[in-house]
């Protein structure tokens, strides 16, 4: 046996990093700058003869089968590795249901017989990519938006904020605006809405959004796909993300979540958190979102109930070291 072959035999193989998102799953190896694959969280179900979403289940056994099929697709179709030979790092939200976490552990250890598994929360994993002692992580996922304060490597659990203000809320508002502009119910599928959102939508400044919401914008473009011909106005493109910033009596908007998280953190960490904001998640990829969030934070910090505690803070934002959708995976 050659010398280099013996060294290769005793060398431990890279662990795999798994991020099972609501809409998209990231899968790859530790030490790499990006996932090997980013695929939709769905698989072909032979029993039902259709594509099935990972998170569509009605019983623990159905969830178990979904995870088995999804991991089989990742291991043997996309990266072609033996799961028994590599450890697993699972990146997940702190608010992941216990049933999902325990079922995933059963699949990994019983069905695929992995040698070891480590669970890492997405907020702390995102903060690790910056190597900063204090980071305020704003994660905008498919279904929910979460704000996590990470202080010296530990998330402040009492300050954790979560609201259903993810990318699906933007898609729902876009569908409503398109129906208004076209004067009829278009019933566009999710993939068409996602395509319009990615290619055409943006987040305007605060003043422009208020003006356009009041009087509208006449400029129009047309979107034709799969036989569907729809008018996509500039108003729909610009105002589709407004649900993230709309305030109500419960103060449940995205800027309110950030300010409430900072207010519930220790007083000596608030200034550092405000100066170290990291926006991640697939929903954070909309052009102009960070600039609009900064404007809203500076405006709301001068109003009750934040004026007395947060008025003097200066908000600064990090540039993500990777694409917004895969920052947590890179940290894992």
TrEMBL record:
Belongs to the actin family. PANTHER family: ACTIN. This is Actin-related protein 10. Gene3D superfamilies: 3.30.420.40, Actin, Chain A, domain 4. Pfam families: Actin. The gene is LOC106126498. It comes from Papilio xuthus. It comes from the Eukaryota.
């Amino acid at each position: 046996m050659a010398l280099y072959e013996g060294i290769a035999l005793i060398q431990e193989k890279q662990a795999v990093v798994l991020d099972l998102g609501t809409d998209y799953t990231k899968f790859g190896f530790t030490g790499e700058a990006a996932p090997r694959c980013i695929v939709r969280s769905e698989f072909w179900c032979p029993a039902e003869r259709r594509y099935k979403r990972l998170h569509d289940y009605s019983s623990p056994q159905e969830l178990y089968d979904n995870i088995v099929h999804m991991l089989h697709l990742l291991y043997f179709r996309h990266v072609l590795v033996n799961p028994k030979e590599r450890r697993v790092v699972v990146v997940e939200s702190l608010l992941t249901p216990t049933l999902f976490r325990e079922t995933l552990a059963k699949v990994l250890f019983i069905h695929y017989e992995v040698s070891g598994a480590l669970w890492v929360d997405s907020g702390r994993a995102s903060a690790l990519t910056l190597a900063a002692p204090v980071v305020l992580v704003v994660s905008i996922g498919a279904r929910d938006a979460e704000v996590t304060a990470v202080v010296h490597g530990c998330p402040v659990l009492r300050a954790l904020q979560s609201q259903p203000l993810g990318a699906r809320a933007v898609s729902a508002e876009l569908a409503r605006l398109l129906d208004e502009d076209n004067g009829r119910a278009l019933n566009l599928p999710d993939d068409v809405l996602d395509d319009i959102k990615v290619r055409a939508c943006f987040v305007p400044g605060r003043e422009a959004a208020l003006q356009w919401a009041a009087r509208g914008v006449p400029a129009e473009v047309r979107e034709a796909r799969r036989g569907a011909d729809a008018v996509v106005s500039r108003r729909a493109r610009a105002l589709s993300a407004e649900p993230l910033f709309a305030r109500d009596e419960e103060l449940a908007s995205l800027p309110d979540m950030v300010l409430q998280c900072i207010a519930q953190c220790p007083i000596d960490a608030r200034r550092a958190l405000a100066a170290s904001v990291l926006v991640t998640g697939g929903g954070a990829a909309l052009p102009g979102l960070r600039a609009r969030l900064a404007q809203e934070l500076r405006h709301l910090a001068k109003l009750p109930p934040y004026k007395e505690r947060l008025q003097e803070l200066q908000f600064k934002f990090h540039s993500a070291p990777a694409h917004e959708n895969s920052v947590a995976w890179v940290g894992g």
